[in-house]
Design goal:
With about 425 residues, the protein is an alpha+beta fold. The protein is built from 8 helices and 20 strands. The protein has 3 domains: about 25-220; about 225-300, Sandwich (Immunoglobulin-like), CATH 2.60.40; about 310-430, OmpA-like domain (60s Ribosomal Protein L30, Chain: A, 2-Layer Sandwich), CATH 3.30.1330.60. The strands form 5 sheets. A 5-stranded antiparallel beta sheet has the order 1-2-9-4-7, covered by helices on one side. Strands 3-8-5-6 form a 4-stranded antiparallel beta sheet, covered by helices on one side. It starts with about 25 loop residues before the first strand and ends with a strand. The relative contact order is 0.12. Residues about 5-10 have low confidence and may be disordered.
């Protein structure tokens, strides 16, 4: 690993990037890459530059670079600087072991900082929105950090699934491309959208950095693209799962009867590939795919189970937990008999912390209008609150909320995605 560098040299102009790479912001409407492209952060590998003729959009890895221990003067907010989750305390820094980035930066310089992206007016018709990020040294699997990713204060769960699967060492940055689900696109209409990465819960000393972020509205065919052959199996039986959803960036497909499907035209880079099926826990795999290589993703999906210990673990990491075993009659807030096991598990969870207050939140898929689903999700949350109150939990410890279709965790365009979005979420009230 390279030695830390307090004063890295500014590299010569790279030859592999289009003109304007050095600007801290870009907005191009009707360009070659998308109907609208906006960017925050110059494309310079945290100031260390690229090899001659290199472009980060090819998906190729750059040579390992020094640590960017000091924030880069003049860099766009939140870019070209080391950040460390807000949950890390001075005592943590003093007593805990962390990665190299955390060891050479200090408070307050390494506190998480918002990355503002000036979007402006959006195209009249929006088909797909992709967010590309050149990310550096995220290592959640190694340091047991748990990142939250938000746009204008709204958490984006699919982005978090990808970020928390990253294991970047070197340090080497990589391009990651993720789709922004349609229900979150209205966040962009504010004109400027604030992107924030933070780990407020784990105290892990996992330093990270971002070189640039791009939003592509209605992207065109990618110059640097790869294909990914996917296989989805039941983890217990090893049998193929037909009509499971596999997706990466702007490409979503259903598996064939043999559990396979190939994704074509995926942007090169660190490809985030997801698989989901009704009744199973979804899974995300990251594949390092420079242009010219083909990817293979094999998923073993586990049937979904809910136990108190699992719920407690998820709340500790994520602040909330999704319950999928609570079912309602169609278009109704009436609890079905097959919800009993999960309701009893939630009851044990609430009882496990005496005097604690809890938010019970209902979520729906996108079938039906926005107002209808908001009302339905609130009514369903109230049904769960009523059941818990009837079984010994004081009602003043329970708060019912309904979000309708506004907070999806998966693509509503597929059966498995809609099933994942129909859920009850439980979290401690602040």
């Amino acid at each position: 690993m390279p030695a830390p560098s307090e004063t890295p040299t500014i590299p010569a102009e790279p030859t592999g990037l289009a003109a304007g790479w050095e600007k801290q912001a870009e907005r191009t409407a009707g360009g070659r890459e998308a109907d609208l492209l906006v960017r925050t952060g110059d494309i310079n590998n945290l100031g260390f530059g690229w090899p001659a003729g290199f472009t980060p959009f090819s998906g190729k890895s750059t040579p390992s670079h020094p640590y960017p221990c000091l924030p880069r003067p003049g860099a766009a907010p939140g870019t070209d600087r080391i950040m460390l989750g807000s949950g890390v305390t001075a005592q943590d820094i003093k007593m805990r072991v962390g990665d190299g980035y955390s060891s050479c930066s200090k408070r307050p310089d390494n506190l998480p900082e918002v990355i503002p992206i000036v979007v402006g007016a959006l195209p009249s018709k929006i088909h797909v929105v992709l967010v590309q990020m050149f990310l550096d040294d995220f290592q959640a699997p190694v340091w047991h950090s748990h990142f939250q990713v938000s746009l204008n204060g709204t958490r984006i769960p699919p982005f978090e699934d990808t970020i928390n699967a990253l294991d970047q060492t070197g340090p080497i940055g990589k391009l990651v491309t993720m789709r922004l689900l349609p229900e979150y696109v209205p966040l962009l209409r504010a004109g400027t959208v604030d992107l924030l990465f933070d780990d407020p819960t784990t105290h892990a000393l996992d330093g990270y950095a971002i070189d640039f972020v791009r939003i592509l509205v209605n992207p065109h065919a990618f110059k640097y693209a790869v294909k990914i052959a996917c296989t989805v199996l039941d983890a217990d039986t090893q049998k193929p799962l037909a009509r499971a959803t596999v997706a990466s960036a702007q490409v979503t497909e259903l598996t064939h009867a043999d559990g396979t499907r190939t994704l074509l035209g995926v942007p090169a880079g660190l490809a985030s590939v997801s698989a989901s099926a009704v009744g199973y826990d979804s899974e995300v795999r990251l594949l390092d795919l420079p242009v010219g290589t083909d990817g293979v993703a094999r998923f073993l999906l586990h049937p979904h189970h809910e136990a108190v210990a699992d719920l407690q673990r998820q709340i500790q990491l994520n602040g909330s937990v999704a319950i999928y075993g609570i079912h309602f009659d169609t278009a109704s807030a009436k609890l079905r008999p097959d919800s009993l096991k999960s309701l009893e598990t939630v009851l044990q969870l609430v009882q496990s912390i005496r005097g604690s207050r809890w938010i019970i939140a209902g979520h729906t898929d996108n079938q039906g209008g926005t107002d209808y689903n908001l009302g339905l999700s609130l009514a369903r949350a109230k049904s769960v609150v009523t059941w818990l109150a009837q079984h010994g939990i004081a009602e003043n410890r329970l708060i019912a909320q309904g979000y309708g279709l506004t907070r999806p965790v998966a693509d509503n365009g597929t059966q498995s995605g809609r099933a994942l979005n129909r859920r009850v979420e439980v979290k401690p009230a602040k």
